[in-house]
Amino acid sequence: VLELTPRCRWVADFYHAESRDDHEDGSMTVRVRAADTGWLRQLALRTGGGVRVLAPVEVAEQVAAQADAALARYRS
Protein backbone atom coordinates (compact mmCIF):
# COMPACT_ATOMS: atom_id res chain seq x y z
CA VAL A 1 0.00 0.00 0.00
CA LEU A 2 1.46 3.32 -1.10
CA GLU A 3 0.58 6.92 -0.49
CA LEU A 4 1.30 9.06 -3.56
CA THR A 5 1.70 12.81 -3.57
CA PRO A 6 -0.02 14.65 -6.44
CA ARG A 7 3.26 14.79 -8.42
CA CYS A 8 3.64 10.99 -8.19
CA ARG A 9 0.11 9.92 -9.16
CA TRP A 10 1.66 8.50 -12.34
CA VAL A 11 2.84 5.55 -10.24
CA ALA A 12 -0.74 4.25 -10.02
CA ASP A 13 -0.96 3.94 -13.81
CA PHE A 14 2.59 2.83 -14.48
CA TYR A 15 2.46 -0.01 -11.92
CA HIS A 16 -1.22 -0.92 -12.48
CA ALA A 17 -2.64 -0.26 -9.03
CA GLU A 18 -5.22 -2.83 -7.92
CA SER A 19 -7.12 -0.22 -5.94
CA ARG A 20 -7.06 3.57 -5.72
CA ASP A 21 -8.37 6.00 -3.16
CA ASP A 22 -8.24 9.65 -4.22
CA HIS A 23 -7.91 12.30 -1.52
CA GLU A 24 -9.15 15.89 -1.60
CA ASP A 25 -5.60 17.28 -1.51
CA GLY A 26 -4.74 15.48 -4.77
CA SER A 27 -2.81 12.67 -3.12
CA MET A 28 -3.79 9.05 -3.59
CA THR A 29 -3.53 5.78 -1.69
CA VAL A 30 -3.00 2.73 -3.90
CA ARG A 31 -2.44 -0.98 -3.57
CA VAL A 32 0.10 -2.62 -5.87
CA ARG A 33 1.15 -6.24 -6.03
CA ALA A 34 4.84 -7.15 -6.11
CA ALA A 35 6.70 -10.44 -6.00
CA ASP A 36 9.87 -8.62 -4.91
CA THR A 37 9.78 -5.49 -2.78
CA GLY A 38 13.24 -4.30 -3.80
CA TRP A 39 11.85 -2.20 -6.63
CA LEU A 40 9.32 -0.71 -4.23
CA ARG A 41 12.03 0.45 -1.83
CA GLN A 42 13.97 1.98 -4.72
CA LEU A 43 10.87 3.72 -6.07
CA ALA A 44 10.11 5.29 -2.70
CA LEU A 45 13.71 6.49 -2.32
CA ARG A 46 13.99 7.77 -5.91
CA THR A 47 10.89 9.93 -5.68
CA GLY A 48 12.21 11.99 -2.76
CA GLY A 49 9.12 11.68 -0.59
CA GLY A 50 6.64 11.47 -3.45
CA VAL A 51 5.85 7.84 -2.64
CA ARG A 52 5.43 6.69 0.95
CA VAL A 53 5.15 2.98 1.75
CA LEU A 54 2.33 2.32 4.23
CA ALA A 55 2.36 -1.49 4.09
CA PRO A 56 3.91 -3.91 4.52
CA VAL A 57 5.29 -2.26 7.64
CA GLU A 58 8.67 -3.97 7.36
CA VAL A 59 9.19 -2.45 3.89
CA ALA A 60 8.16 0.99 5.20
CA GLU A 61 10.71 0.61 8.01
CA GLN A 62 13.43 -0.44 5.55
CA VAL A 63 12.74 2.60 3.36
CA ALA A 64 12.88 4.91 6.39
CA ALA A 65 16.17 3.37 7.54
CA GLN A 66 17.72 3.68 4.08
CA ALA A 67 16.57 7.30 3.78
CA ASP A 68 17.95 8.13 7.22
CA ALA A 69 21.29 6.53 6.34
CA ALA A 70 21.50 8.49 3.08
CA LEU A 71 20.72 11.76 4.85
CA ALA A 72 23.34 11.02 7.51
CA ARG A 73 25.97 10.64 4.77
CA TYR A 74 25.08 14.10 3.43
CA ARG A 75 25.30 15.65 6.90
CA SER A 76 28.79 14.33 7.61
Q: Which SSEs are present, and which pair or pack?
A:
Layout: E1 2-4, H1 10-14, E2 19-22, E3 28-31, H2 38-46, E4 51-53, H3 57-75
Antiparallel strand pairs: 1-3, 1-4, 2-3
Describe this structure in words.
The protein has 76 residues and is α+β, with helices and mostly antiparallel strands. The chain has helices at residues 10-14, 38-46, 57-75; strands at 2-4, 19-22, 28-31, 51-53. The longest helix has 19 residues, at 57-75. The termini are far apart. The model has no long low-confidence stretch (mean pLDDT 94).
The number of helical elements comes to 3
Q: Strand-and-helix sequence, N→C? A: EHEEHEH
Q: Overall mean pLDDT score? A: 94
- Percentage of β-strand residues: 15-25%
C-alpha Rg, in Å?
A: 13 Å
Low-confidence stretches: none
- Strand runs, count: 4
In which range does the helix fraction lie? 40-55%
Largest sheet: 4 strands, antiparallel
Oligomer: single chain
The backbone outline, from C-alpha atoms, is globular
Between the first and last Cα atoms, what is the distance in angstroms?
33 Å
| Spatial ordering of strands, largest sheet | 2-3-1-4
Q: Would you tell me the structural class of the helices and strands?
A: alpha+beta
